[in-house]
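Form 7-S
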Amino acid sequence: MQHPAKVRVRFAPSPTGGLHLGGVRTVLFNYLFAKKHGGQFILRIEDTDQTRYVEGAEQYIIDCLEWCGLIADEGPHVGGPFSPYRQSERKERYRPYAEQLVQAGHAYYAFDTAEELDKCRKEIPNFQYGHTYRNQMRNSLSLSETEVQQLIANGEPYVIRIKMPQDETVTFTDMIRGEVSFDTNLVDDKVLLKADGMPTYHLAVVVDDYLMDISHAFRGEEWLPSAPVHLLLWKYLGWEAAMPQWAHLPLILKPDGHGKLSKRDGDRLGFPVFAMNWLDQKTGDFTPGFRELGFLPEAFLNLLALLGWNNGTEQEIFSLAELIDQFSMERVSHAGAKFDFEKAKWFNAEWIKKVAPARLQDLIIGQMKQQGIELEDTVYLSRVIDLVKDRLVLLKDFWEQASFFFQAPEGYDLEAVKPKWTVEKAAFYASMMQGFKDLSSWESPDLEARFKAAAETAGMKVGELMLPFRVMLVGGKFGPAVFDIAALIGKDETINRIEKALKAFQS
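Output:
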């Protein structure tokens, strides 16, 4: 597939709420394609529908992309040669193009009120404002030129609609789906310019893609029905040669494969579908996100990349650099991809294992503060992370898996110990405390050697002694290698915990 020398792609969200993981995947595929071809990735805010605008949503989108490491080359927050990047600030640019379409006979003024349109929808099954009914409506096709001019002069509100042609087939080549065709008789006359002078998505996306020199437009499959309108606008405005190559990305499906994954599905099944926590300032609704649940951005991007794309091998773990290197639109599937939260957690566990403890420190220190623990020794924290990170699925699992490194257990799993607890074992640990006190070196191998030698001297099996020792230090039957735990918490703390646990075991 040939690509132009200059690649410019864009993500153009509406600031109306949280960022769905499908939106982040759209960003990711745009970003990977741009970086693979040495191009630019642009963030453009499509805020023309002011009735749906939500305070804070634009900054939230920017924060999500920055958390993911998908940094825009141009956008409302960084500027660029095609500023402004908010459509509401570009309002005056759109009307001339809408008027040009009217003058050329490809669009028309429509004066129908909301009440008149509602009446049509109620009285006519499957009503579409298109070639079947347009001449029965109040518009510049059914009214005389004098009537139209009089209505405009009187300040009558109107919209501008595209005039969809009859009995035509509109065709384009999708980079994922190949040739796609549409029957224009099935497409209604979409509004291009609203009564308040704001463009709709249909006009704004075409005008801005042209003015911003966009070379490729990747968007979700749900926008496919809008394609014939956009294709015709490119043609009618005389810009057909500059039209970007299009790709409509597959849907992310519910875990059962039936239908598009929604926020409600996440609420129902107990997993997030937004990149980060989102609090709607209008409604007060709170929606949890992947970041706060304890996902690493590397894992989040990795799992999204494989929802609809693969590199043709069995490889599953990819860094962002590897994804850029190996990404191609030819390997993107046109079929929907089922979201599997268990698989998502697997990606996260694998990435937690991969990254250096120092990378996790800042993310985990916040958890420690929530537990009332202020850490001055980050070297100690780093060593703890190194011991437990292979046991973490989510970053929020850290305290559950590692609390005993920072405070002695408050209780013990006595059911694990008491059935096989004996006077001889109690005597062994009492002796072991003295043996530990005499050790000059406090390293894991030395502790293990002393422990095994003491067990042999006492004529006891090491295996029967290990579980009580773990419960003494940890409180339960979990955690990393027990001698690693003892080595890290130190001699005095280890001896204190044995002494305290002996009293609990014997009570």
